[in-house]
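Hi all, posting the design record for the shared folder.

TITLE: backbone redesign
STEP: 1 of 1
STRUCTURE INPUT:
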């Protein structure tokens, strides 16, 4: 199994990373996409990947970073990608959950990172929260040139199909196991299995039965299990196909 979106370099894991990796082994999680989102975390993803070969690092500038220094941050990212092996650009995207004040800068940052991903022939990892239309409109401009994943997708099934048409995979995380999460379940049951990825987004969004607690990559097991249950197929089938999808997307 592959956790296609993890932040195991975070503070939350500083005391028990080795135990977390041991639990990955026990749950048969053998690859982890380690996702950076800022200058500091992009570097951490590299450092961890040199130390542990389970990790595949990425680098990006998150919408939370969209401020007046955005161009400098983007230029730092370009330089970083020139100097390091990364498997994807991102996470990046649009997030209007807390503020829309910086929306123009968020959009500019996403455009720049789409172009960078195309230029370097890398997939892009998209974070989208309360911003479906603006995210879609931007990604559509690069249709046919860009490939990537809608990470921790929480939108409608209908929009999932639209993103797939643009060349995107759909990744589901912990929320698919939540009792009241209608849309992720709808997506899990209906989209073609060959477009689906699974993830944790740890330390956030723990699946049931750990909801509310710190999340970790080993828990992608519960996401896989839930999706198999919802689709009425075997665990191994979801495991095998999502693993193949993730390898195809990130070329690992
Ligand atoms: Ni994330």
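Okay, here is what came back for every position:
SEQUENCE:
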């Amino acid at each position: 199994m592959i956790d296609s979106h993890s932040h195991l370099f975070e503070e939350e894991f500083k005391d028990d990373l080795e135990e977390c990796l041991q639990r990955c082994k026990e749950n048969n999680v053998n690859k982890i996409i380690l996702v950076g989102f800022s200058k500091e975390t992009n570097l951490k993803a590299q450092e961890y990947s040199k130390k542990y070969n389970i990790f595949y690092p990425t680098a990006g500038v998150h919408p939370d970073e969209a401020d007046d220094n955005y161009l400098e941050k983007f230029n730092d990212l370009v330089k970083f990608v020139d100097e390091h092996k990364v498997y994807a650009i991102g996470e990046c995207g649009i997030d209007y959950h807390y503020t829309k004040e910086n929306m123009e800068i968020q959009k500019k940052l996403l455009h720049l990172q789409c172009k960078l991903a195309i230029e370097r022939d890398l997939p892009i990892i998209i974070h989208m929260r309360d911003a479906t239309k603006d995210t879609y409109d931007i990604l559509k401009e690069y249709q046919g040139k860009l490939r990537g994943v809608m990470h921790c997708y929480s939108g409608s099934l209908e929009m999932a199909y639209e993103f797939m048409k643009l060349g995107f995979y759909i990744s589901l995380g912990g929320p698919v196991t939540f009792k009241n999460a209608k849309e992720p379940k709808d997506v899990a049951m209906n989209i073609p299995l060959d477009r689906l990825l699974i993830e944790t987004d740890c330390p956030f969004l723990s699946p049931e039965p750990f909801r509310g607690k710190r999340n970790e990559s080993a828990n992608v097991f519960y996401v896989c299990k839930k999706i198999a249950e919802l689709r009425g197929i075997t665990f191994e089938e979801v495991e095998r196909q999502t693993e193949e999808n993730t390898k195809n997307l990130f070329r690992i």
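COMMENT: Residues 2-250 form a domain with the TIM Barrel fold (CATH 3.20.20.140).
Let me know if anyone wants the other runs.
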